[in-house]
Each structure stands twice: as C-alpha cells, then as structure tokens.
Amino acid sequence: MGFKSGKIKKLWTVDCGLWTKRGFTLIELMIAVGIIGLLLTMAIPNYYNSIKKGRDAQRKQDIHNIQTILALYYADKGEYPLSGGASSPGGGWSNSSDSSWDTLQTTLAEYGTLPKDPLNETGGWAGNGKCNYSFYSQLGGCSQQWYMLVYKLEAPGNEVSPGVTACNGDYYNYGGTGTMTVGMSG
Fold first, then answer.
1. What is the pTM of this model?
2. Listed residue (94, 119, 91) closest to 104, CA to CA
3. Would you say 173 and 149 are in contact if contact means Cβ atoms under 8 Å apart?
C-alpha cells in the first residue's frame, strides 16, 4: 500500500513493516487538558491573592510615607495641613481619587510627594469599599492639631484598624472588612 501525499507520510510511521499512526489519542489529550485545567483552577486564585497582598504592602508603605510627610509639616508649621475639597466622603476631607489630593500635595510639596492608592478608585472612599486614601484634619476640638487617614486593604487577613482619637477625646474608626483608620493627635 503506497501513500503519495507527504502530509499523510508525516502522520504515519513504519513499525516492523506495518504502518502505525503516531501522536496522542483523543482520550490522552482530554486527560492532559483536564489536568492542566485543574492546575489552573488551583493556581489562579493564589496568583490574584498574591497581587492583592502586593498592593496592600504598597498601601502600608504609602501610608507610612504620608505620615512621615505630615510629621515633617507639623514639625515645621506647628499644625497639620487643612483637609478639604473632596467629593467623597465629604467636603471636609481630601481624597486621593480627586483634585483635593492635588491641593493637599501643593501644600505639602516641599516635604515630599503624596502617593496615591495603587488602584485609586473613584466614586467613593475607603469607608464604603473603594480603594483610595482619605485625609481629614478638621474639627475634633482642635482643628489641624490631629488627623486621620482612611484606606482600604484588599486582603486584610487578621489586621484590625487601630482608629484614632481626636484632641477632644472623640474616637474615630471607619473600620470594617479591610478598612483601616490611622492618625495622630498632636
């Protein structure tokens, strides 16, 4: 039996004088695809969780940097910068997802650059589940002598929001799942 097509000859080999087909059977391919699919279903959630943890590590570093900038400002001026202009959570706040953060950055420019959340979601604030940074320094019995920063962690684990106490003794903690409130009372 002779084959004339070069294409067919590549699919078939001679084994002990008989023509045999080389390659995988449909069952073997289906098993391989199933195993790959199973491995992917286990690996993808871990991959996304590690990305979230990486962004959370960046957030913690950002908040530390913001607090350092605020401490430098306070040491120089004797007060914290005035917050305000945010659309969310309210006009007394500064939020990294709108122009109020740029205004705050202008005030703090000589002390450093204010980072923004890695996702920096608009349309809300960390207190209602959005990933961005919010700063507040008004009221509390001593405007600009205290501040709070509110931010959201995507993979908080067992972390608990410490909250902050204003000069007049009022305690603020916008904690919820992953929402962190930190601050300083001068």
1. 0.78
2. 94
3. no
